[in-house]
Amino acid sequence: MSRSIPPQHILVIDDDSSVQNTLRLVLTFERNTVELAINGREALEKLDKHKFDIVFTDLIMPQMLGKDLARCIRQKYPHQVIVLMTAYPDFLDSDEKEVDLADITIIKPFSLGTITNALERAYKINKHRKKSESPPPPTPP
Question: Helix or strand or coil: residue 40?
């Protein structure tokens, strides 16, 4: 993993505990703080209480699909970086891809390099968005 980015606060949403535990292990190894949610409802509750640098969400979950969760997150937290994880990339049709449901999509099974790449890309996206949110410097009189 890359040591060039600072630790981040990450929310992982997946109904498969083995995926949750694997991601938590990989992400905490590099000093990231990781919280877990098993479904969209639990994830939205956590997002209401805490700010996360990155949200990793599975696409296919019971109760609420990851793409529906991503839409909810985009509406409430438009600047939230979302990483969509899926073993079924064909489940996303081209119209949904164009709506920017997620900033990054990764295909399961994923490698350590894929996670590292996603973390680095997410960090850069956050950095860019924070620059865009800051007010412009005052103009001299």
Answer: helix
Global pTM?
0.87
Question: What is the CATH topology of the domain spanning 9-132?
Answer: Rossmann fold (3.40.50)
Asked if 9 contacts 31 with a C-beta cutoff of 8 angstroms, the reply is no
CA distance 75 to 68: 11
Average pLDDT over residues 60-68: 91
Whether pLDDT at 57 is above 90: yes
E strands, the chain, are 9-13, 33-37, 54-58, 81-86, 104-107
Place of tokens 């990339």: 89
State the CB neighbour count (10 A cutoff) for residue 20: 19
pLDDT band at residue 98 using 50, 70 and 90 as cut-offs: very low
Taking the C-alpha atoms of 19, 15, 64 and 77 in order, what is their torsion angle to the nearest 10 degrees?
Answer: -50
Residue 66 CB neighbours (<10 A):
26
